[in-house]
Specification:
heterodimer; A: alpha/beta; FAD/NAD(P)-binding domain; 6-stranded mixed β-sheet; 6-stranded antiparallel β-sheet; 8 helices; 30 strands; B: about 400 residues; alpha+beta; Cytochrome p450; 3-stranded antiparallel β-sheet; 10 strands; about 45% helix
Chain lengths: ~450, ~400
């Protein structure tokens, strides 16, 4: 095999989970050439899931979530500097400080950032936060520790719901405003969203669904917000949790197939250019990637999941230093988790790729259940609530395209609930929170999930 | 010989020292129906799938044809042999004083005490030319630990050892008539349960920091607690599991290291490899070799339909040696990467005491390894215990 793939210059843009895991894998696979890691944040790679959980509860400091390294990636680190452009012909990445980095192979792992509040003046009010970086979490945790009278959370996706949960656990009054019909509905569909809504209210969240926030008020300091139903919320802190924006703008002139839904790539993580021709020296991994998945009709998936960032980074790195026949596809079944209001929620597959759901184990009343999602008669996803140990079984059903509804026989299957009902996954356009899984089809607005307007 | 006698041959005492060739035969056979109608399974992927399948019951009452020689009717079963949701309720209550989320620091806090007990045991052996690893060390260590943890007087060990021997023997999978064994086991279980409930009752209102005190005095936030009968079966389970399994892990550890002097040397030089070495031991010579399960519906396993209610014996120790999952599976490699063994099972019945067993084995072997420099096995293979399910040497004499 050609030894040169283990040599040459590799540049990784993005110094978070995917970038770090790729760098480690490159070294594990025997890459000996110079490796440069570029990150726009000044911090070394850190873990984000605790930022909306332990950090907000005051159980861990935002600076204590540094990612453990499996091995020293022996990289040259360029932290605190943003990539601003890519010249794929000259094979150079342009940096904000004017520098340019030559590469032989490039990995794009720029991930996402929090979607900002659309009005910049209102967004600049003291007390208005987004939550994506450790600096964000630091600032928000400090405000929560100071004991605000009320926190307003805009958007009831996973991040917004976890923030609301942390507030309630700390005894802080919280209002959650969501444009859609219920929390988490964009990711989990109607039935579990109803459970989530009931749970939030039972924990004392002032949950307002079907409304939008029309204005944030304050005189330098945030004091409150207007809602579309004419009501007004007085609060000291506002967290904008309206989903994420992919960091792909810097690729606008690169000729790559990069857009709002990410950078399109093949199953081997190789980026496509805008003509749909695959490159062989530019790879993509993590939240910035948009890739075809055979289990979901080869639709292009954009995921914002921890596990996907790791798995895809490993495949991308392997393929960067191995010739064609030895390359591997990224076929991992998507998995994510959340903890909120005392519940452990785990998901496998793509719940939004569904037309029906059935409760296969446990019950809504116990708040311990497995919800199985089907699409045209096959199992496509499962979500466990406080029952994560069963997840593997359903993962296997998804991988083998097992019939939906799944075969009966579980010891804890409630017969009354074993009738499939519509999954009620709304069009993401109607939500405040963006979806963390997007089935992007071949056109950005093409979706194959059943949409039931509410 | 044909695969339908595999269970008979595996449980044959003559094969106790080395059942692994039989396990290879089992994996080659795929799903092996036995002459008594039960099914024997030994490949990694089949077993892991079954352990995560909600249609597979651990409850012996799920047998379609009850065994004439044993009756579980009307008996209270430990959570090990129950299905959700009952299993979940009992295991959660049992976990409350032992592990996360309620008692996350419990096992870690015992490290110092385990190290102290280990040193005391080893000190008493100073200057001896020959020891029995089982009786002198690997048995007394976990017994002392589980006694402290539960709040059982160490002096009563002969009492509950006798009960435990009978109970464990009655639960073995070996074929043949078991009426007398089962009756004796149930009798011993009742006596041991009563003994533990009496101990717990004495702590009512006077907690002494142990788990029996917690069971009797601390209801969970929903006001639930174990009933007297549940406490009895749970405490019996923990006491037995706490001293019938770790003894094998430690003993198998010493035996395996003495059979692999190069690896023993390596661990002496690189003691930080020990946690991984313990995982490898759990794969290579696990204390628990098999578990019994019953399908609640007809299930397909590797192309065979196993009818509802038919006993299935999952040979975990065979899964751990499956070459389709582990490269070079018969090699003992303390640094083995990607070692997701099923030594502790998998799924909802994943060993409750695993964190404690890991810590005990790590501390025990860390203390022993420097002293094994000149040791040699007096007998290889050593004499084994009768039980095929909980497999381990009865004695392990070594000479210095």
């Amino acid at each position: 095999m050609p030894g040169d793939l283990r040599e040459g210059r590799i540049v990784i843009i993005g110094a978070s989970l995917a970038g770090l895991r790729a760098a480690e894998t490159l070294r594990e696979e025997g890459f000996t050439g110079p490796l440069t890691m570029v990150g726009d944040e000044p911090h070394p790679p850190y873990d984000r899931p605790p930022l909306s959980k332990q950090v907000l509860l005051g159980k861990a400091s935002a600076s204590a979530t540094e990612l453990p390294t499996r091995r020293d990636p022996e990289a040259q680190w360029r932290l605190g500097v943003r990539a601003t452009g890519l010249d794929p012909v000259g094979k150079r990445v342009l940096l904000a400080d004017g520098d340019s980095l030559p590469y032989d192979r490039l990995l794009i792992a720029t991930g996402t950032r929090a979607r900002p509040w659309p009005n910049p003046e209102e967004a600049a009010l003291d007390g208005v936060f987004t939550l994506r970086t450790s600096d964000d979490a630091d600032g928000l945790a400090e405000r929560l520790a100071a004991g605000p009278r009320r926190v307003l959370v805009i958007g009831a996706g996973f991040t917004g719901s976890e923030i609301a949960s942390a507030c309630r656990e700390r005894g802080i009054e919280v209002t959650v405003a969501e444009r859609g019909p219920a929390p988490l509905v964009g990711a989990l569909g109607g039935t579990l969203a109803k459970l989530a809504a009931g749970l939030q209210r039972a924990h004392g969240v002032d949950l307002r669904c079907g409304v939008t926030v029309t204005a944030l008020h304050g005189n330098g300091r945030f004091t409150g917000a207007d809602l579309s139903d004419g009501s007004h919320i007085d609060a000291d802190v506002c967290v904008v949790a309206m989903g994420a924006v992919r960091n792909t703008e810097w690729l606008a002139d690169s000729g790559l197939a990069a857009g709002a839904r990410g950078v399109a790539c093949d199953a081997g993580c190789r980026a496509f250019n805008m003509y749909g021709i695959v490159t062989d020296d530019i790879f993509v991994a993590g939240d910035a990637a948009r890739f075809p998945h055979p289990l979901f009709e080869y639709q292009m998936l954009s995921l914002e999941h921890w596990g996907n960032a790791v798995a895809q980074a490993e495949v991308a790195a392997h393929n960067m230093v191995n010739p064609g026949p030895l390359r591997r596809p990224h076929l991992a079944v998507p998995v994510f988790w959340s903890s909120q209001f005392g519940l452990n929620i785990k998901s496998v597959g793509v719940p939004t790729f569904s037309d029906q759901v059935v409760i296969a184990q446990g019950s809504l009343d116990e708040r311990r259940l497995v919800m199985v999602y089907g699409y045209r008669g096959r199992v496509t996803a499962a979500v466990t609530v406080n029952m994560a140990k069963w997840l593997e079984y359903y993962e296997r059903l998804i991988e083998t395209a097992a019939p939906f509804p799944p075969a009966p026989g579980a010891a804890d299957r409630a017969t009354a609930a074993a009738v499939p009902v519509p999954s009620d996954v709304p069009d993401p356009k109607v939500l405040s929170h963006g979806p963390t899984v997007a089935l992007t089809g071949y056109l950005p607005d093409r979706r194959l999930t059943m949409v039931r307007p509410v | 010989m044909t695969a339908d006698t595999l269970l008979e041959r595996i449980t044959d005492y003559a094969n106790r020292p080395n059942p692994y060739p039989l396990y290879a035969e089992l994996r080659a056979a795929g799903v092996a129906r036995q002459t008594d109608g039960s099914y024997l399974l030994g490949t990694y992927h089949d077993i892991v799938a079954l352990l995560h399948d909600p249609r597979i019951s651990a409850d012996p009452r799920s047998r379609s044809v009850p065994r004439g020689d044993r009756s579980e009717e009307g008996l209270h079963l430990p959570f090990l042999r129950l299905d959700d949701p009952e299993h979940h309720r009992l295991r959660t209550l049992a976990m409350r004083p032992f592990g996360p989320p309620h008692s996350p620091g419990r096992v870690d806090a015992m490290r110092g005490e385990i190290a102290r007990i280990t040193e005391e045991l080893l000190e008493a052996l100073q200057g001896r030319k020959q020891i029995d690893v089982v009786d002198d060390f690997a048995y007394p260590l976990p017994v002392t630990v589980i006694c402290r943890l539960l709040g059982v007087p160490r002096e009563d060990e002969p009492l509950f050892r006798a009960w435990s021997d009978v109970i464990v023997d009655s639960a073995d999978v070996r074929p043949g008539e078991a009426t007398e064994r089962v009756r004796a086991g149930q009798q011993a279980h009742a006596e041991m349960g009563q003994y533990l409930v009496d101990l717990a009752e004495r702590r009512r209102g006077q907690p002494t920091g142990d788990m029996l005190s917690a069971f009797i005095n601390e209801p969970d936030p929903a006001g639930q607690r174990l009933t007297g009968e549940e406490l009895a079966v749970t405490a019996v389970l923990l006491l037995i599991a706490g001293h019938e399994t770790t003894v094998n892990l430690i003993t198998n550890g010493v035996l395996t290291l003495l059979r692999h002097p190069d690896q023993l040397d390596r661990l002496r030089r690189e003691p930080d490899l020990l946690p991984r070495a313990v995982e490898e031991l759990l794969r290579y010579e696990p204390p628990v070799h098999m578990r019994e399960r019953f399908p609640l519906a007809d299930v397909d396993v590797a192309g065979t339909t196993i009818p509802k209610g038919t006993p299935m014996v999952l040979v975990l120790a065979s899964a751990n040696r499956d070459p389709k999952r582990f490269r070079d599976p018969d090699r003992f490699d303390p640094a083995r990467p990607d070692n997701e063994h099923v030594g502790f099972g998998s799924g909802i019945h994943l060993c409750y005491g695993a964190p404690l067993a890991r810590v005990e084995a790590q501390i025990a072997l860390r203390a022993l390894i420097p002293r094994l420099g000149t040791a040699r096995l007096v007998q290889d293979p050593p004499p084994y215990r009768r039980n095929a399910m909980l497999r381990g040497p009865r004695h392990l004499p070594i000479e210095f």
